[in-house]
Write a structure and sequence with these properties.
Chorismate lyase; 29% strand; elongated; six-stranded antiparallel sheet; two-stranded antiparallel sheet; Arc Repressor Mutant, subunit A; single chain
Length: 256
């Protein structure tokens, strides 16, 4: 009796890729080859239908998945464009965004839109380990890369640790740089969240209120006492967070 041939599985390389995957491969080749640069318009849906011999629904699915992956940007009624690469910030260390931007050869500017002493909310007092109604320093800054807002810094500071904080000229020294210079950070906590900005945040970041953003929340302590609680809000289309690190011995052994 003849042996039965095994059925080909969908993952078998001998099988032709789904048509929408073929469209995605075609567009990736255009981008990877440098034929179209970041910000340049890609072939229209109708052009892709004619060139590849697929349906418009297939092309639409391919473009939608490429947009979800951050490779292309679709503008309704205008077309599809090669997406701008997003700068990446680190998660494992305290990084100064001005240094990151300058390292890319780009122009860095920032502005302080609020600097005042105020009564802490319950959220802020809990984050800093202060009693309810405690007084805190509050600053809000907008950081720009080549003129485009890429980060909103919303920071609260414990006055007991940095009593001269509000006396600084924040036009010449960033609040984070001042704190880094005068207070050693013995412990740092980073938490990343995704969501929609408030109306005020969207206005300051020059983004649509329905556009998702990434928020990095940071707390630092020195000798067990909280120094600062800060939120760094980034438009999701302009920024990403990530890191590369070497695990310690315990992690390498699978114990971390």
């Amino acid at each position: 009796m003849n042996a039965r041939r095994p059925e080909a599985k969908p993952s078998d390389p001998a099988l032709p890729a789904a048509r929408y995957e073929q469209v995605k491969h075609h567009i990736r080749r255009i981008i990877d080859s440098g034929e179209r640069q970041a910000g340049e318009r890609l072939p229209s849906e109708l052009d892709l239908v004619a060139t590849l011999g697929v349906s418009r629904m297939t092309v639409n699915r391919a473009l939608r998945e490429l947009a979800d992956a951050g490779l292309v940007t679709r503008v309704s009624g205008v077309g599809t464009f090669v997406a701008q690469s997003k700068p990446q910030s680190t998660l494992l260390m305290i990084a100064h965004i001005g240094d990151e931007i300058r390292s890319r050869g780009h122009e860095y500017r920032y502005e302080t839109v609020l600097a005042q002493r105020e009564t802490a909310s319950v959220t802020v007092s809990n984050a800093l380990g202060l009693p309810p109604g405690a007084s805190v320093f509050h600053v809000i800054c907008v950081h720009r890369e080549n003129g485009l807002p890429v980060q909103l810094e919303d920071r609260y500071v414990n006055p007991a640790i940095a009593p001269d904080f509000l006396q600084q000229d924040f036009a010449t020294i960033r609040p984070s740089a001042y704190l880094f210079a005068i207070v050693p950070a013995h412990d740092v906590e980073h938490v990343v969240d995704a969501g929609l900005p408030t109306r005020a945040e969207a206005d300051l970041l020059d983004m649509r209120a329905e556009e998702p953003c990434l928020t990095l929340m940071r707390r630092t302590w020195t000798s067990g006492v909280a120094v600062t609680f800060a939120r760094f809000v980034h438009p999701g289309s302009r920024y990403r967070l990530g890191c590369r690190f070497a695990p310690d011995t315990a992690q390498r052994a699978g114990q971390g």
